[in-house]
Amino acid sequence: MSDRTDWNDLRERRMAEPGAVEAYDAARIAFELGQSVRSLRERNGWSQSQLALAAGMTQSAVARFEAGGTVPTLPVLERLARALNMRLDVRFSPDVDAA
Description:
This protein is an all-alpha fold.
């Protein structure tokens, strides 16, 4: 059964497909942003509904965002930041993986 593929082979093939790296990066960014907002919301002791009300969103939109299911626009991030009493800070950082 030498034709079996392990996870690393499958991932390598998929990542070689056109657009795969960009899609993976977008998913990573959405996930990281969602986790940051969730952490701030929980630190405030708020429910998703409370954050949604403060940010002018629906609870389901907050849930999708926190789960990394959507890539938000800058205006949405700004509304979330204001609702959480934070300032949105968008910046470029060195890529530690770059040689």
